[in-house]
Amino acid sequence: MLTTPHLELAIREALAEAPPVLELDLTKVEFCSSSALGALVKAREAAGESTELRVAVGRYLDRTLNLLGLDTVFARYPSAAEALAADRN
């Protein structure tokens, strides 16, 4: 919960530049509070159609997103390298 405000600020700052792609490396996340999940959903909404949001997730967060039905909301990748390389394929 202490890191959620930092996550929200970092995402807000990144989206302010209107990038075509925003990649979040969350592969090392071992716990994700409802506040943090809410921040991710808000990020998806804020990105809109102009920014593709790519999320690199580890096993824990991948399973959490699946259980909550959020697996279709995010472009998920098993590693940051794969998220970065996605537009090159």
UniProtKB/TrEMBL annotation:
Q: Which InterPro entries match?
A: MlaB-like_STAS (IPR058548), STAS_dom (IPR002645), STAS_dom_sf (IPR036513)
Q: Which Gene3D superfamilies match?
A: STAS domain
Q: Which Pfam families match?
A: STAS_2
STAS domain span: 1-87
Name the coiled-coil region(s). Answer: none
For this entry, the protein name equals STAS domain-containing protein
What is the organism field in this record? Amycolatopsis carbonis
PROSITE patterns xref list:
STAS
Domain of life the protein comes from:
Bacteria
